Amino acid sequence: MFIVTAEEMYGIDRETMGSIGVDGKILMENAGREVSREIKKRITKKDVITVLVGGGNNGGDGFVVARTLHVEGYSVKVVQVVGDEKIKGDADYHKNLFLRCNGLIFYRDFISDEVKHIIKDSTVIVDAMVGIGVRGKLKDSILSIAQFVNESNKQVIAIDIPSGLPADEYHSEFYAVQADTTVVIGALKQSLFLQDTASYYGEWMMVSIGFPFEVIHQYTDKQWWNITDFQSSFPKRKENSHKGTHGRGLVIGGNHLMPGSVMMTTRAAVRSGAGLTTTGTSKSVISMMASSCNESMYIPIQEQEGYLSGASEIDYSVYDAVAIGMGIGRKKVTQKLIQETITAAKGILLVDADGLYHLKDQLNELKSRQKPTILTPHPGEMATLLDVTISEILQKPFSFSKEFAMEYGVYLVLKGKFTIITSPTGRQVVESGGNPGLAKGGSGDVLSGIILAMVMQDQPIFEAICNACYLHSASADNLVKEKHSVYDLTATDIIEGIPNVLRTLTSSE
Hints:
By secondary structure, this protein is of the alpha/beta class. It is built from 18 helices and 21 strands. A 12-stranded mixed beta sheet has the order 8-1-10-21-20-19-18-17-16-11-12-13, with helices on both faces. A 7-stranded parallel beta sheet has the order 4-3-2-5-6-7-9, sandwiched between helices. Helix 9 (259-271) packs parallel to helix 18. It is elongated, with a radius of gyration of 26 Å. The model has no long low-confidence stretch (mean pLDDT 94).
């Protein structure tokens, strides 16, 4: 499913009507009917339904919904919350169709008490007041109605987007309708995947109304990664494959105080299908790991006072991919190791955790790498790399990620509830699975191991990263569903949950 900004959605709409020639009235009819189909799954003929209609296409969709439900015998009334001069073009056409079907419209000059009574007497509110074109705060007249809706404790179903909610990132202050359900039209809106705005949608689903795939793709390369994408792109193993076929991976990390990080990354890589895995760490960590991760090989790395300081022992040319940074700490002696690895690694390089801290002063060196580089920061680490605040990152995650990935030529995985994966060309994918159980130390280390394994398989690197993120989240979700809670779930549990996801989601093999 594609993700769009408001401007991109307008472009898709114009292109579909202009170049393709689909009449706007037909698109509006399609939208209203598809939304009605979803609404009918959530209501009964006993419900009293009020459709709050504003101007523009969103209001026009509301009139189609009202007419569709009305002619099928539902108890429906419309409250037009704007003056007649705001109902134009296709919206006016569908308003008149509703009236000719003996539909009931209440015209309110924003007399708050009267609107409040109508809302109070309803059981279901359909919100079609303001669409994706909102800029800044709602006008006082519509703001008061939105407040009544939120205070009413009625079932609220929004058309396309809750009124007052920005469609895009970098939103200023806003007040929006809190929907129980939102039926998104045509393409997913960017604010569905932002920390401060996602919850306003409630449960959501998307309906298609006739926008051609080629037109949508012409305007956006942002995508939501779901189970269909995972299953269609996940590589199948050949019968005659061997351990060398599935990659030689190297994990570098750990110190005398944090041995667990590199251990979890290594075990996750092994579980996720890496052909051969080697761990480069201190001798003390190797002695702890060897008995619990028998499948990995080990290389002792130089250290000073328990911290890794150099890797002259490593022949990087034999590894298809290298992951570095997990549990190495932030001591200055370790910075040399990061620098050596950036220069010496001949294959794919993944930098995570404390490796990102040491990387900040070496970012420009990434531009000269001949093989792909993957960085996996959480918002705090991303803020440090860019010298901005975490709040700024959370307000503009798509923009910051795209600018950074394109400037330094890297694949960027900005981790969070909505993980944004960005390619060096600016293509972006959101993976939104997972649960609060992932908010634990070690979850990111596990993800790095899964990514390391996936990028060494027979699939494009961008799809491999997306599939790794999906596999990580799906493991957490399955475990919470079957035998764990979000409280007790651990990073080690996620590793152990990987086989079940691979078995069930790739069973067609």
